[in-house]
Amino acid sequence: MFDTLSERLSGIFDKLTRRGALSEADVNEAMREVRRALIEADVALDVVRSFTDKVRARAIGADVIRSVTPGQMVVKIVHDQLVEMLGSEAQPIDLNAPAPVAIMMVGLQGSGKTTTSAKIARRLTQQQKLKVLMASLDVRRPAAQEQLRILGQQNSIDTLPIVAGQSPTDIATRAQQAARLGGYDVVILDTAGRTHIDEPLMMEMADIKAIAKPHEILLVADSLTGQDAVNLARSFDERVGITGIVLTRTDGDGRGGAALSMRAVTGKPIKLLGTGEKSDALEDFHPGRVANRILGMGDIVSLVEKAAQNIDMEQAAKAAEKMRKGIFDLDDLADQFRQMEKIGGMSGMLGMMPGVGKIKKQMEGANLDDGMMKRQIAIISSMTKAERRNPDILKASRKKRIAAGSGTKVEEINRLLKMHRQMADMMKAMGKQKGGGMLGKMMGALGGGGMGGGMPPGGMPNINPAELERLAKQMGGAGGMPKGLAGGLGGLPGLGNKLPGFGGGGFPGLPGKKK
Q: Smallest Cα–Cα separation from 228: which of 252, 204, 196?
């Protein structure tokens, strides 16, 4: 969602950081460009004005002028101001109330209320082990209640039985009674929406609120609607009194202005981000991490959290032990591919890596897609157990059989085998080295060591393309990537101890997609 804004701001700050000293005129010029970038991103005008005034006041102070790296100091000021504008600290859903805690979902029709209700219920059930009941109060939209029932069935969440002819307030009353009698911890009330804000909608929301007395009233807003989302939040807050915001479709190509404006305009925290259609595509909103993404600093903390949630720790420990012994067969390679898919695939992982935004265009030119991993897994799955354990027995006739079985070509099988050999050699080498060995060098290539997800002292990390290329060659990256990336993603770190299951190794040098 923030790609365009991130690209614009990175270009502005690159000019600043290349200068040895900054004058007041330099800062004013940069702030004019930042102002233009924020307005183009659909940020509310009064928010833009307040933001640039605060940054300018701090950026032309003595602390910046006397700084060893004044350009990077300005970047830090912008980062801190972004965090302040987004809300400073993450505010998760508040469940600190007597059970059953009522959560009321409000918003316009089509914003994703029903899907988001199921996502929140699934999250509370799986992560916090709470007993959740969902109830649809939407009696206008055809099959709305049936949709919630099916989502509940798919995610093993209880839903209130549908009774035809009941009003939304009657359903709310029945849901509260059922939740109390059934010993539920949380009851989620999915209310109806309209295509636009009108008086009947607001009156219905107020009536439901009076009966259900919800502890949380979450506004579900489509991030692609831009400034309209800000007006929507203001209207619902004035009439119903929302306690938080859930932004949906943040994986789309919206300009990000809604996220940057809503907190500042309404004073209400953004609590969750919907990042896709799947039932697990929901993230906590962390202002610091979002600011890092906007400024191209990546989000390693979220990547590690996602890995911890999705990777089988027992399997990861076994894989790490095998790698320490220098054992790395094709089954292990397929397991690594599957684990990478679980945490967002290649594109999802790279999107959270510090500094990767600066080489994004090169990556796009390499035709990297997540379907590539599926093809590699298909190839490995078409092999016999003996072939996966001992790839050396794969001769021409066997390769033809595997190509036919996986719907690929022999050339692709050869590239996969070459990549496996390189990774197996690398695992053996890293297993013998002390103190991190090559992994330590790779970490250093990404700008000064720290991978904690926060901002390094002095500003954004800088990727050194020459160092990346040298390391990738040293690791023997496979072909198909542009020169700047040295034929693979070998130059990027395997995140060592931070990402379980990657065994301290680098990302595989995946072959480029054939055009």
A: 196
Which pLDDT score, from 0 to 100, does residue 499 have?
A: 37
Q: Give the Cα separation of 401 and 317 in Å (integer).
A: 34
Strand partners, 189: 104, 135
Tell me if 219 sits within 8 A of 233, measured CB to CB: yes
The CA distance from 421 to 432, in Å, is: 17
| 134, containing H or E segment | strand 132-136
From edge to edge, which strands make up the β-sheet containing 216-222?
Answer: 158-159, 132-136, 186-190, 101-106, 216-222, 244-248, 270-274, 282-284
Average pLDDT of the segment spanning 342-371: 56
**Does the structure show a pLDDT above 60 at 440?**
no
**Domain for residue 302, yes or no?**
no
At 512 the pLDDT is 39
- 352 lies in the same domain as 465: yes
399 with 450, same domain: the answer is yes
Sign for the pseudo-dihedral over CA of 35, 40, 41, 42: positive
End residue of a domain, out of 294, 325, 360:
294
Say if residues 455 and 76 touch (Cβ distance below 8 Å): yes
Same domain, 283 and 328: no
The answer to the question of residue 197 being in a domain is: yes
Find out whether 148 and 118 touch, Cβ atoms under 8 Å: yes
- pLDDT of 453 over the 50 cut: no
Residue range 286-312, pLDDT digits in tens: 888 787 777 766 545 555 555 555 566
14: its two tokens: 């690159």
Query: 504 in the Ramachandran plot: left (φ > 0), alpha (ψ -120 to 50) or beta?
Result: left
Same domain, 327 and 374: yes
- 502 assigned to some structural domain: no
Q: For residue 512, is it within any domain?
A: no
252 and 328 fall within a common domain: no
Q: Which H or E run includes 320?
A: helix 313-324
Total domain count, the chain:
3
Structural domain that includes position 381: 314-485
Q: Kindly give, in sequence order, each residue whose CB lies less than 8 Å from that of residue 435, ignoring residues fewer than 6 positions away.
A: none
pLDDT digits (tens, 9 = 90+) for 377-410: 999 999 999 999 899 899 999 999 999 999 999 9
**Per residue in 238-293, pLDDT tens?**
989 999 999 898 876 666 777 778 888 888 899 998 988 888 889 888 888 787 77
Give the Cα-Cα-Cα angle 437, 503, 352 (nearest 5 degrees).
90
Kind and range of the H or E element at 272?
A: strand 270-274
For residue 363, give both structure tokens: 């990556």
Quick one: 64 and 106 in the same domain? no
The residue out of 86, 115, 142 marking a domain boundary is 86
The predicted structure's pLDDT at residue 480? 34
Mean pLDDT of 154-178: 95
Pairing of strands 158-159, 132-136: parallel
Residue 205: which CATH number? 3.40.50.300
Whether 255 and 138 share a structural domain: yes
For helices 330-342 and 300-310, give the axis angle rounded to 10 degrees.
Answer: 120
